[in-house]
Amino acid sequence: MIDRGAFSYVGQELDLFAHAVHWKAYWASRIREWIRGDVLEVGAGLGVNTIALRNSDVTSWLCLEPDSELAERLAKAVTAIPNCRVRVGTMASLAERTFDSILYIDVLEHIKDDAEEMARAAKLLRSGGHLVVLAPAHQFLYSSFDAAIGHHRRYNKASLQRCSPPGCRTEAMFYLDSLGVFASLANRMVLRQNKPSLRQIEIWDNFIVPTSRLLDQVFGGAIGKTIVGAWKRG
User: Fold this and answer.
1) Is the overall model pTM greater than 0.85, yes or no?
2) Considering the domain boundaries, does residue 70 fall inside one?
3) Can you name the residues that pair with 60 across neighbouring β-strands?
4) Which of 164, 200, 212, 229 could form a disulfide with 179 if both were Cys (CB 3.0 to 4.6 A apart)?
5) What is the count of structural domains for the chain?
6) What is the CATH number for 76?
7) Which H or E run includes 122?
8) pLDDT digits (tens, 9 = 90+) for 89-116
């Protein structure tokens, strides 16, 4: 049984984006090299990312989720994953152990004081361990959809670098989904939707994402609607 908490997630997009299988496979392949040993996933949601990121280098996985209702669904989703536990709470309540990898997958943009959050995470990161952030990119793409699901901001390389975890050095920082920039811009300027439809998600995932995988190699991670940052401690 998951204890009930006071936090309730305002977004309703998690079930919708669970259908974006090509996108999850893509970004998961780009960050998997930094995921090993004892892993902490902050804001694990429905467990879709947990399943996508598990690999043979992982020893244990702790899913931290502040919304107790989401955590109940999460626990059911990861029940078959060995050495995977679910805990209701935030980083502020987690101080009794350290980790080799700490992950923020579409989470940091929901946290008001992101620099303070990164400082907390750095204290729980072992020497040689990695902290990885995947977040929406470029404030000019901020839309009513971002506001509706509780995003405080979108990032570029400069703004993400400003909240780097203390005591850690930047290993990588790059953008993904170059073609998706234009789709997001169209939504912001033309469609102005608070929430994409399932059909739009399917078109993006089945056609735009595969094209972006090719274009991202051409642009070398210099453009995209998603940003990835990875830091190493020590």
Assistant:
1) yes
2) yes
3) 38
4) 212
5) 1
6) 3.40.50.150
7) helix 114-123
8) 998 888 778 999 999 999 999 999 999 9
